[in-house]
Amino acid sequence: ATTFTIPAGQQVTLTVDNKGKALHNVHVLNVQGADGKPIQTDLVQPGGSTKITFTIDKPGTYQFHCDVHPTEMIGTLVVQ
Question: Which of 66, 65, 53, 61 is nearest to 23 (CA)?
C-alpha cells in the first residue's frame, strides 16, 4: 500500500495518472475537505490523468482507495 503525508490546513494538489487498463480513481475515506466536499477524483480512463485540490484541517490518518478496486488499491494519507 502507498502512504502520503501532507500538512494540515494547507492546500494540496494530487495528480492521478492512470497507467493501468481499467478505470481508476482516488477517494479519501471518512473525511471531507475544508470546503465540506468529499475528497474524490472522477474516474480516470486508461492512459488518462486528473487532478484534485483539497485541504484537510484535522490532523489524523485517513485511508484512501480506488472506488472501482476498493480491496486491492488502497493507501494511507497522514495529515500532520
Answer: 66
**Sheet strands (E) in 1-80:** 2-6, 12-17, 27-32, 38-40, 49-54, 60-65, 74-79
| 44-70: pLDDT as tens digits | 999 999 999 999 999 999 999 999 999
Look up residue 15 and give its three cell numbers.
Answer: 495528480
Query: Is the pTM above the cut of 0.85?
Result: yes
C-alpha cell at 17: 495518472
What the block records as the C-alpha cell of 2 is: 502507498
Instruction: Give the span between the Cα atoms of 73 and 28, in whole angstroms.
Output: 12
